[in-house]
Amino acid sequence: MKILYSLITAFRMYSRIPMPPAAWEPEKRRYALCFFPLVGAVIGAVFLAWKAVCGRFGVGTLLDGVVSALIPLAVTGGIHMDGFCDTADARASWADREKKLEILKDPHIGSFAGMYLCGYLLLQTALMSEIKSRQAVAIAAASFVLSRTLSGMAAICFRNARENGMLRESTEPARKKTTVAVLAVTAAAACIVILKSDPVMGGTAIAGAGLCLLRCRIMAYREFGGITGDIAGWFLQRCELVMLICTVAAEKIMAYAGLGM
Fold first, then answer.
1. Average pLDDT of 160-175?
2. Tens digits of per-residue pLDDT, 209-249?
3. Which of 12, 85, 158, 232 has the fewest CB atoms within 10 Å, i.e. the most exposed one?
């Protein structure tokens, strides 16, 4: 029963998919992060279905890219994008650590966050519209799972920047060894799917995700003293965008070099 409650909690926290009510109790959300990647699997499935519709009915490139970029926001309700915006504002302030942590808690969006948000969505839309081959589509779909496994592992394994807060409340009840093991297996499975789709494009995308995780740890420790829920969301969004960039770049280079898919 605890596993079921953890599954419900994961989807209630990290998505807008309707779920039955569940009490916010430590025992009932002990393994919630284990199910975090399943939200990415749902996003990936919807993305694959949309790409199939685009191919079947000849949907235009712009509409294809716009809807593809909106799918993650629709499924998650923008919870991770909110963290991306808050972190962008905090980092752009060039303030001291304590002030940056205060900015992360501010529910209002600043001018820097607005600019980063617009830039992110424009670039994501453009990249989504460039994904055509079945291999690239599969890699993009699997990236929603891999980004969440890495974000969950960062939340569990990285030093926490605050003594309290949403991330602390979410990770404290977790059985860390079990959660990390489940997330590691999920990450390995996602990587296998990505590499089997195409070793070159997939390997490039995975390398990009790994570099993003390393960059997140360095930045979080140096600028904030550790990770927060907002920074975990910032990482997730950046990871997905970088994996898209790597996939599209590798696909274009392979096509230019005459290496067929």
1. 68
2. 999 999 999 999 999 999 999 999 999 999 999 999 999 99
3. 12
Asked if residue 32 is part of any domain, the answer here is no
| pLDDT in the model for residue 250 | 94
Spacing of C-alpha 196 from chain mean position: 21
SS3 content of the chain, % helix, strand, coil (to 5): 80, 0, 20
Q: Which of 75, 68, 67 is nearest to 14 (CA)?
A: 75
What one-character DSSP code corresponds to residue 109?
-
Handedness of CA 238, 244, 250, 256 (dihedral sign): negative
Residue 198 has pLDDT above 60, yes or no: yes
Return d(Cα 235, Cα 23) in angstroms, integer: 28
Q: How many angstroms separate the CA atoms of 157 and 139, rounded?
A: 26
pLDDT in tens, 111-132: 999 999 999 999 999 999 999 8
Domain annotation covers residue 228: yes
Q: Which residues contact 83 (CB under 8 A, 6 or more apart)?
A: 229, 230, 231, 232, 233, 234, 236, 237
Dist CA 248 CA 260 (whole Å): 14
Q: Which amino acid, residue 21?
A: P
- Other CB atoms within a 10 A radius of the CB of residue 211 amount to 13
Domain total of the chain: 1
Dihedral (C-alpha) 54, 134, 150, 118: value to the nearest 10 degrees? -40
Residue 35 lies in a domain: no
Q: Are 45 and 28 in contact (CB under 8 A)?
A: no
Domain extent, residue 245, equals 43-252
Q: Is the pLDDT of residue 208 over 80?
A: yes
- Asked, for residue 24, whether it belongs to a domain, the answer is no
